[in-house]
Write a structure and sequence with these properties.
The chain has six helices and no strands. The protein is mainly alpha-helical. Keywords: Membrane, Transmembrane, Transmembrane helix.
């Protein structure tokens, strides 16, 4: 039974709490995935950087700058970072659910939660990934960090706008139009917005030609898999927690009916 029919709609606080809990679960799972698939690639990239460093150092400079956080500390902090990121995204998902639930045109709270998580994965992760794929920490020019940050944030906004444009386009055909027509309109609107964004934003490719292509590819797949794990787990966990609200309310109504009888 949908949350919005036949009973009182849960408060924002109740939804936010479940979003944060779902985000914590998803963040920890994403941390496990990132640790198991990405750490070895980061170590390999750092080893390549350190092997190339002596040749790039000025004469007489025989040491590297000390790391602020050791690699062991970074590995331990990975789980904290993904957990905090998951909690933040869980809060955003719960907020979006609260604001958009009545506009999603579905009676299923599970489909609504999964739909929002899927839209976020598409707009926040996949669209930016194609334009600006992740690079290992040893790759990149510090002088361009501001340009890369602005470009990445811009493509995230464009990704969300593209998703929204797709939704509006799917609803634009008159009532009774076939589903395939709505799907074509949605895909066309989404692709047009994304294509415009890709053309307008600058391309940034700072990976040295000597960097191993297989290592770069493996790192990017691990990074994408971490995000996919987080948003998939977040959507499923949030939907499950919403389902528990529905189950609890149905039990309360049944008890009330028994007492009234």
């Amino acid at each position: 039974m949908p949350l919005t029919a036949g009973r009182t709609t849960p408060s924002y606080g109740a939804l936010l709490l479940r979003g944060l809990l779902a985000g914590l679960i998803a963040g920890l799972l994403a941390g496990v995935f990132a640790y198991s698939t990405g750490e070895s690639r980061i170590d390999a990239a750092i080893a390549i950087e350190e092997a190339a460093a002596p040749a790039a150092e000025p004469a007489g400079d025989g040491h590297h700058d000390e790391e602020l956080v050791s690699r062991d500390g970074q590995r331990a902090g990975l789980f904290l970072a993904t957990a905090l990121y998951g909690v933040a995204m869980g809060g955003l998902l719960a907020t979006a659910y609260t604001l958009l639930r009545r506009r999603l045109r579905t009676d299923s709270d599970t489909r609504a939660a999964l739909g929002l998580a899927g839209a976020a994965l598409l707009g926040i992760v996949l669209v930016p990934f194609v334009k600006y794929p992740a690079n290992p920490p040893a790759v990149g020019n510090p002088a361009t960090i501001n340009q890369r940050t602005i470009g990445y944030l811009s493509i995230v906004v464009i990704g969300l706008v593209a998703v929204w444009a797709g939704v509006l386009a799917a609803r634009s055909p008159r009532e009774g139009s076939p589903e395939w027509l709505r799907a074509v309109a949605a895909v066309a609107a989404f692709v047009i917005v994304v294509a415009i964004g890709y053309v307008l934003l600058p391309s940034i490719d700072e990976v040295p030609d000597t960097f191993p292509a297989s290592l770069l590819w493996d790192f990017r797949i691990a990074s994408l898999g971490t995000q996919a794990t987080l948003w998939t787990a977040l959507g499923l966990a949030f939907a499950a927690l919403l389902g528990r609200i529905g189950t609890r309310d149905r039990a309360a109504r049944e008890r009330s009916d028994i007492v009234a009888a």
